[in-house]
Specification:
The structure is a homotetramer.
Chain A (H helix, E strand, L loop, with lengths): L1 H4 L6 H6 L13 E5 L7 E5 L7 H9 L5 E5 L15 E3 L2 E9 L2 H9 L4 H4 L7 H11 L6 H18 L6 E8 L4 E7 L8 E5 L2 E5 L11 E2 L4 E5 L6 E4 L11
Antiparallel strand pairs in A: 1-2, 1-3, 4-5, 5-6, 6-7, 7-11, 8-9, 8-10, 11-12
Helix pairs in contact in A: 4-6, 6-7
Chain lengths: 251, 251, 251, 251
């Protein structure tokens, strides 16, 4: 994991200092890694320090080997800096991380949380919109119909925003996995879409907000309005998100 | 503030290491202080370190003078250790800290949160039952009828627990203030009531979980099932909580 | 203090995210404030979080009033992110903060520490070159001859660097105070000198790495190779540092 | 690792709350784990939170498998709570953790640090006596003559204490490893010796301050005044420390 997290010249740690494509300059509001080892459930290491100064992160990523892991650096869009608000989030074998935001979240927070079933509301540890989306997807059958549950939750969220006259956009660049399949979601209700790239290399897939190496080749954008599904054996496939036009012109 | 927080032989800092009367031995899951200075809103300093090792706390309390302040050491009853979950909580000029818990909170968390109005749900920063009770009280008119709002929220909480067949108790030792008046609430739905003491000394009132000095005199228990109200000029008065018998035999 | 720390459009908190003139982009490796209140010793609040996400900093600075305070955001030049390495440092009534570095510090760390007397070596809490310089100055009579002790320690440090064939520069932008007088030191052994500005406004002096307001007027550079001394009543005076030419061509 | 760190009824995490045999009640001033994986150098995860509330620790130990690891909970004997002061310490392939203290350390800190060679003084990240002892041992040939270097450093430390008329004791319960062999040192200059136990079980050796299970059998004390050496294949052997009588009556 060290190779991807700390070593490339545009690594996660470098990205936490300077994001070339993000709207914020610094992702210093905590970070997290999640990885699958010999158990079905992922391991998580999250902290509120900036990634670039965290000796633990360097040491842990030097030791870990994993065929599937997430890494995230956070720039808060308003909620507090706490471990519980750091990505990735995990419930059982599922893990999720997200760049983006629900426009006007503070106005519809409780409504968004109402998309979470009682079963998964217990798992709510923080206060972010990202964790709420993930738990809502878990509640809508992420485990049995991943793409369907993503679609439903995004559509319902857009409907809530619409009902509450929120004009700020919904922007989503989200990665979800059950430890076997990876789902990368990229969409936006306006024309600004968070960046999301992937690369297939030596039979391994990387999905990142920004290419890990400056000018590196082999990196492709996840197309906007799509879910990329990758199961390890074939090429990734891309499923268009079926979200009503009135909510999401661009998708 | 140093005199009360760090200097007595049974100070808050000492209490964070050894609580003589609490059911847990160590209050090491964060701490907080809140104080009123020259503004209507209190200042807060909260952190997730144990109070006893925090140089900032020592330094800040050495400098501060305040005629009204709260200090709290936390032993989590299940929710995460984060600053947002540390007491005191504050909204506008109001401040609250709490020892105790809502029995079976995980099962009725959303119902308890539903006692919070939209206006104050925006202020929800953490995930604790304590903050939920405080925001529910704010939503029920803490600012205009403090004792009434406390009563209503506790009664509604007990009703929720009853409806959900929760047998674990509601135990409350809570302090609330608007910077002028202090309200100290002590009650329980079973026979174990969190300790809460007060002392009037040199025209200043202290309210603590445990007397600040071992064997110190002048300390009295806040009577169970009562709200103590103190406005700075008179003796504190004690108002019995009017909570239906079926919910709260002991109160 | 809020007015200077969190409110101007180029406040300390804003500076922690983007330093217009510093060689690093982000000062996210901790921060600190120190202030004088009713005691001779200053209060300190330092933490390893980035300043911009710290609710405690916002709340504390809202409450504090002080006629003399320091505020610092840190970009580590190599040593660990820990509270003990965060500025300001304080011993007794003295307080110090520093931007800059001793070139080749890792090679002469023990020699620099040998400039600290036994009395003040006890006060060494961290591992930074900045704290070492401060304690060395304390050891060389900061309390009785501030400018002289600064000069001696800088000259001895340059001599140590010279003896050890260190070509990396010594760069110093340091503020020292005993709670009554302020000493601002600015010098460098090469041509790149850390920025240091001051402004006299309403009988109060501000000394900062960068002007607190973009394009604000009334800000002047502390001249390189000088110590600015300000005692509260007169205009600041500027004393040239008397450091041997061979060590410090530019000074 | 989870089995040993979080699961037994007297696990490290439980010990961080209540130490049955230690002189302090609570080991809440940080913790650390170090483990060997597929690299010669160990991984480290250390933090200043109490171990019992750290979700990262739970998650990481669930994932890790290691044939050799250290785990430590810290009760500070005076130095600051910072990650750099948390055990285990590591240099290259070596790792060290320690319970105990150098009596009067503040008076002889610089002398003890003078036992560290320039090569290893660079590795000094914190300010503890424990790290100083470890780096002094590295400087005295821990890599080529482990028991000899331990003996020399302890003898020199005792001599320094003697020269400085320190009557407070040197107490040592230290574990050292290069990833292949384990060295457990237990001695004291007075009659109170920090506890240190070991157990051989399924060809694996555990060395702990306190038996991991209350009343568990198979646990034996490391004899005072000895270094236990264990290489993985044979039974552990015990080498008496050869320290001059005048310094260490009990050893």
């Amino acid at each position: 994991m060290e190779e991807l997290i700390s070593m490339p010249n545009h690594s996660l740690i470098a990205q936490s200092l300077h994001c070339a494509e993000a709207k914020v300059n610094t992702n210093g509001d905590g970070f997290g890694i999640g990885w699958y080892g010999h158990k079905p459930e992922p391991g998580l290491y999250r902290d509120t320090q900036p990634a670039w100064g965290d000796e633990n992160l360097l040491s842990i990523t030097k030791q870990l080997k994993s065929s599937l892991f997430f890494a995230h650096v956070r720039a808060s869009t308003g909620t507090a800096t706490s471990r519980s608000n750091c990505h990735p989030f995990s419930v059982g074998k599922w893990m999720c991380m997200h760049n983006g935001q629900i426009g006007g979240y503070e106005d519809i927070r409780r409504d968004v949380e109402a998309l979470i079933s009682d079963e998964f509301y217990r798992c709510r540890q923080g206060t972010t919109d990202s964790e709420a989306l993930f738990l809502a997807m878990m509640s809508h059958g992420l485990d049995v119909d991943p793409v369907g549950s993503v679609q439903q939750v995004l559509a319902k969220t857009l409907e809530l925003m619409h009902e509450n006259d929120i004009t700020a956009p919904l922007r989503v660049a989200m990665a979800l996995t059950d430890g076997e399949r990876l789902y990368a979601v990229r969409c936006s209700s306006d024309k600004i879409v968070p960046s999301l790239y992937y690369r297939l290399h030596n039979n391994s897939l990387s999905v990142v907000s920004e290419p890990l190496e400056k000018g590196g080749h082999g990196w492709y954008e996840v197309p906007c309005g799509h879910v990329m599904v990758y199961g390890g054996d074939n090429a990734p496939c891309f499923i268009p998100l079926d979200i009503p036009d009135k909510f999401c012109k661009v998708a």
